[in-house]
Amino acid sequence: MRPLVIAVAGHVDHGKTALTRALTGVDTDRLAEEKRRGLTIEVGFAPLSLPGGVEASLVDVPGHEKFLRNMAAGVAGVDAALLTVAADDGVMPQTREHLGILSLLGVDEGVVAITKADLAGPARLAQVSAQVAELVRGTFLEGAPVLPVSAATGAGLEALRTALAGLAAAPGPDPSLPFRMEVDRVFSVDGFGTVCTGTISAGALAEGDTVALYPAGREARVRRLERHGAAVPSLSAGHRAAVNLAGVERREVQKGDTLAAPGSLTVTGQALVSLTLLPDSPYSLKHSTQLHFHHGARSLLCRCTLLGRETLRPGETGYARLTLAAPLAARAGDPFVVRFFSPVTTVGGGRLLDLAPGGRSGPELTAALNVRAAGDREQAVEDALRRAGEPLSPDQLARRAGLPPEALPPILDALEAKGILVRLGEFALSRAGAEELWVRCRGLLEDFHRRAPLLPGMALAQLRRELLPGLPAGAADALLALFAREHGLRLEGRTAALPGFTPHWTPALQAIRGRILEGYTADGLCPAPTEQVLRAFGREAPAARQVLKALTAEGLLLPLSGEYLVSREAFDAALRKLRRAFPRGFTLAQARDTLGVSRRYALLLLECCDGAGLTRREGDRRQFVTA
User: Fold this and answer.
1) What is the model's pLDDT at position 292?
2) Pick from 499, 568, 484, 488: which is nearest to 527 by CA?
3) pLDDT < 50: residue spans in the chain
4) pLDDT in the model for residue 74
5) 3-class SS at 502?
6) Rounded to an integer, what distance in angstroms lies between the CA atom of residue 527 and that of residue 119?
7) Does residue 216 sit in helix, strand or coil?
8) What are the distances in angstroms from CA 104 to CA 75, 181, 346, 606?
């Protein structure tokens, strides 16, 4: 049976804290102000053992309307709800508001407790039960157990424990999801340092793990883990956790932050959302309304821009763009709640659909949001690839599509089989994106061939850098290989050229070529500096520079340094001479005297040999590497 985190919710003074204390023996009113005022301000937590060995944590959330922000934070990551309705009061305003918040945040199972049952007779209990039935009709609590209980006498508590234990039979969160925990409390402990508490909503955490503190993204190490005061080596989704972070100061963490696996969340200042107003919302929403936004344990102000309409009325659902007052760390699909700016009251909520919205609008945007809202994973991946227009890694694609990385392989296989995407190693690219990149590639090469008509092609390193900067060489080479198969891109050695391209030698360029080769042949191993060679061509120097590049690319000239070139013929003849004279190695002085050149030119020649892997230097001697 899976562990449970159960939110105890309801109107102020409807017995939540007393019921929690009766079930667990723990008083969750821990603040002096709470004791003095007799109401819960902060969220309180208590462990609860249920029949069948079910481990549960009760989350006592505030009921007073002034503290509903804390209530929204308290239900982040909960599995189920225990909704309390006092027998003497019946259903009250915060009863409805708490139920609405629980529904909007995706809680889908629970139990209703009619508290203070010792204060009401059978007729009153029947009346309140009827109110509850009307309240929960059409919600996740319709058909849930409704049990009269008394924290004062203990009546009904065993039946309540049994009903709560039954909630553990439902499937838990996907175990493959990366770790995530919303921080609802932060404090320091002498000798340990910073401690964050929260409910693990996904994945698992162990001592020694590295986590990221969002939205800042700073990484930290887990020094110690506790569950309800007891140290444990690891914890999984569904558990309350106290996480002691090494190397993080208390001032660097605040309530509302998120601990998560590094790289698993997207930090954004805008989101496209599906927004639903509660049927009993006291207000409609107009275009560009300011709202209080609640996500996880975080509370922000936001500006709500409705898409395709001017007003969203109670009970209606529509799309909107939320512009947030501060960065938000989230995943597509996360639930949220919004409250009216003033007066502050819950009006609705929904799901985050797109955390990198860009500038799309109109029918295209609506169609994409329909896909996200419908939960079509394959279509969401296709849309993310198409919008990117460039290769994406699995992590990048998962974040943009709002999916766990583990869900991608079968989706990518299906899209590849349909011809919708191409695989570039571990990267993926939409077919349309590949065609757009080919157009860019062709344009780059056309421009290069126009500027360097004598060169056989553009260097692959340069083409990769200009076409897709930042893409790993392996993925870029896979893309160029695709262009070679499908578009005839010519890949030869370390260069790329358009199909059908050949260097174009005019009679004038041929004449320059002959003069350059003649000069370098005459100079042998003692060439003039390259710039001096070019100056001799006067107004033809730019054309001569092109010829030098072409001769270097052909291998007829070799660079001795950035300043000198030497003819291949002279270079090869010098190596043959040194090999014959010194098969067991030689010094710089021996090479100088044998070749009949100055020490400077001998050094340039030997450093070129070292760089090409033809010789290996050992102290003051060099040895030929190959025969």
Assistant:
1) 92
2) 568
3) 29-43, 63-75
4) 42
5) coil
6) 108
7) coil
8) 11, 19, 10, 75
Sign of CA dihedral 132, 136, 141, 142: positive
Q: Which residues face 242 on adjacent strands?
A: 197, 226
What tens digit of pLDDT does each residue of 575-625 get?
Answer: 999 999 998 899 999 999 999 999 999 999 999 998 888 999 988 899 998
| Helix (H) or strand (E) run with residue 7 in it | strand 4-10
- b/e per residue, 432-464, with b = 16+ CB within 10 A? ebbeebbeebeebbeebbeebbbbbbbebeebb
Phi, psi of 608 (to 5 degrees): -65, -40
pTM over 0.90: no
Give the C-alpha distances (Å, rounded to integers) separating 360 from 42, 341, 352, 392: 41, 28, 16, 20
Is residue 609 within 8 A of residue 622, CB to CB? The reply is yes
Burial (CB < 10 A; 0-12, 13-18, 19+), residue 470, is exposed
Distance CA 331, CA 106 (A): 15
Q: For residue 498, what are its two tokens? A: 């358009």
Whole-number Å distance between alpha carbons of 601 and 595: 10
Give rounded-to-5 percent helix, strand, coil for the chain. Answer: 40, 30, 35
β-strand partners of 54: 50
Residue ranges with strand state E in 87-160: 110-115, 146-148
CA angle 370, 371, 373 (to 5 degrees): 65
DSSP E strands in 51-179: the ranges are 54-60, 80-86, 110-115, 146-148
> Computed from CA positions of residues 258, 261, 267, 272, in that sequence, does the dihedral angle turn out positive or negative?
negative
Provide the β-strand partners of residue 419. none
For β-strands 110-115 and 146-148, DSSP reports them as: parallel
How far, in Å, CA of 207 to CA of 135, rounded?
Answer: 44
Three-class SS state of 498: coil
CB atoms within 10 A of CB 397: 23
pLDDT value for 30: 46
| Token reading at 98 | 């708490």
Task: Determine contact, residues 496/463, Cβ cutoff 8 Å.
Answer: yes
Token reading at 328: 């938000």
Query: In the numeric block, which tokens belong to residue 112?
Result: 């209703």
- Cα 109 from chain centroid (whole Å): 30
Residue whose tokens read 């939960």? 375
Closest CA to 384 of 400, 395, 371, 368: 400
- Non-local (6+) Cβ contacts of 28 within 8 A are 17, 20, 21, 40, 44, 45, 46, 58, 60
